[in-house]
Amino acid sequence: MSAAQHPRGHRPVVAMHAIHKTYRLGAHTVAALQGVDLSVARGEMLALTGPSGSGKSTILNLCGLIDTPDSGEVELNGQRIQGLSEDQRTLLRRDALGFVFQGFNLVPVMTVAENVDYPLFLTGVPAPERRERVAAQLAAVGLSAHAHHRPDALSGGQRQRVAIARALIKRPQLVIADEPTASLDSHTADQVLDLMRERGHAEGAAFVIATHDSRLTRRCDRVVALLDGRIQ
Fold first, then answer.
1. Beta-carbon contacts of residue 173 (< 8 Å; ≥ 6 apart)
2. What is the pLDDT of residue 7?
């Protein structure tokens, strides 16, 4: 089985077939991805590694429905992404995807509970169910006592826990994570990674994670190395 294939018997949450993507930088054309095949199974934690410019961010953007390939196909839960309108892509992104960032991207004027609740609010989940799900998710990440605090009152590790809770609250099929441990010390990074693994498996969410962090790759189910837009 190649590094790009998902484990046999598991339907892929996201699949890429013969993906090419180029960008123009001034007068230059940069080949970001050159014929990439990649799929990720339900509950799988996949790490993307490689130097800057290798194609990791481009794969995240394609998986996250933020960008489209020049050629090839991207499928999310068996649905072809090409041809969808921007409104359809936005709804699919809202309903099926979660995002975790290096800088946390929490709303500073909202409490922890409000940050976690926000994706449910956007999707129109009734308030009583939202309160119940937020409380359960904060308990799962060990932050029940901090529900009414603002993000600036938390440590970096606690903020990343909030971000993970927010990403998983709507029970997404896929979580996109960009260098989620880069700003964390080793002890905190270990805790956050264990939490991502535990919660991802509990929720049945797949993770696609771009990282330079060997602490993270050791905990992933699979590591895909990229170089110059190709899988090694």
1. 13, 42, 76, 77, 96, 97, 204, 205, 206
2. 47
